């Protein structure tokens, strides 16, 4: 399904500010895999997602979806197969358009947008049905501007928009991080339900280790542009937050000894 | 005063075009000053050669389409800043317009124009012509509303509202921008073609500073008929255009010279931008906004809960 082969990405290459964000990342996901990604700040998690979605072009390596290379395509073409939900609730929706208009935009993913009507009765009843799943009452507010919704509601809407056109891949970039704990919990639950319902191949970045362990069937830990730990199936089920913390401490230890050596 | 209303209706087409770029695409397009004259020049040229005035107006529209497309290509493919892309096209059009017209002023005095049937019956400047102009403009408003409610129209609105969201949903925002700019300048040029026929000449300087009139119409219209619905806003900018022409007419009536009108235009736009922030108007706006505030404020995850080294949130935090 998804093959990331030895991708490299550096920002400001060749300058004093050069920052290597990805230093040879290999990742394979099978159809229906739900993989969580954890790692410290600057580990390259978001860069990995941005590279898969075509927003960044990798300096080297390849990204393949269903065997087709996508790393040289513009982001809007990759978006035909890859849906995303961003950390910022404002980023995933058009604030001045209504809920149904936003949903219609997302429903058009992968189609050529012509002069057909943007909203039809059939679409509207489909939207109602999909929004009812969220239990947020949004199905009765189809003509409300999205800018008037709370962050949690916008994130829930973004999730529906990302999933209901059956993309080949779903990328979630810390999509619960900007919400209060209650709403984050709700969005996490919705994520699990929607992904399970559609069997979507999913890559989810999170800062919350508990969430990373609870969700999905795979887990990767990144550090300084590399994947340093990959847990799948039973290994992941058996792992605890303490185990992950221990892994992080190992890295910290290494860094510490490096620094001591230099001193 | 009927003349001012007629002018307002004819310029209303231009206001619709400016609305499309300025509000829908969020693109401050300065091509307008050039493409307006392009439409007028093309139309005048064809009419003086004995062409059909309706076709001549359509040709003006076509010229505007091309001009807008150039600005769109400069901005999207050339990655040139919107303002600069518009200015470049506009200044290039100045020379092209002179080439089209052959000289700086092209009179249409005894030629047959789309308005000849009205002027022959001495109906220009009467209620009949105003109603007729308004009906034609209404057709364009309806066409615009229809367009903005199609899938392509939604894609265009998303492009102006949140470009990265549009791209993340598979919309080629370069295409939507080019189409939007082309359509917008097509409308502006068609407006220029009509104005040339109405006043009986095309002039190389007729488009200078016109973007200010366009912005004034959009700002006045949307400030008075404040609604977040696109279908209301398109009609509102047409009313804005009429109000703007009436204000200009009043300024002329109190003794200001036609040469002062650019200054008057600029002052109108500044006032239209500032007045809503002052005194009574500000209170009205604040109240209106308070009604629309989201019910629940958003809460961001407290940074203190994060592990300072790994940046991770511990469970239960």
Automatic annotation (TrEMBL), chain A:
Residues 2-249 form the ABC transporter domain. GO terms for molecular function: ATP binding; ATP hydrolysis activity. InterPro entries: AAA+_ATPase (IPR003593), ABC_transporter-like_ATP-bd (IPR003439), ABC_transporter-like_CS (IPR017871), ABC_transporter_ATP-bind (IPR050166), P-loop_NTPase (IPR027417). GO terms for cellular component: plasma membrane. The keyword Glycosyltransferase does not apply. The keyword Flavoprotein does not apply. It is an enzyme of class 3 (hydrolase). It comes from the Bacteria. Its EC number is 3.6.1.3. Keywords: ATP-binding, Cell membrane, Hydrolase, Membrane, Nucleotide-binding, Transport. This is Adenosinetriphosphatase.
UniProtKB/TrEMBL annotation, chain B:
Coiled coil: none annotated. The chain crosses the membrane at residues 7-25, 54-76, 83-102, 122-148, 178-198, 204-225, 232-257, 263-284. Its main location: membrane. One of its GO terms (cellular component) is plasma membrane. Keywords: Cell membrane, Membrane, Transmembrane, Transmembrane helix. One of its GO terms (molecular function) is transmembrane transporter activity. PANTHER family: ABC TRANSPORTER PERMEASE PROTEIN YPHD-RELATED-RELATED, BRANCHED-CHAIN AMINO ACID TRANSPORT SYSTEM, PERMEASE PROTEIN. This is Branched-chain amino acid transport system / permease component. It comes from Propionibacterium ruminifibrarum.
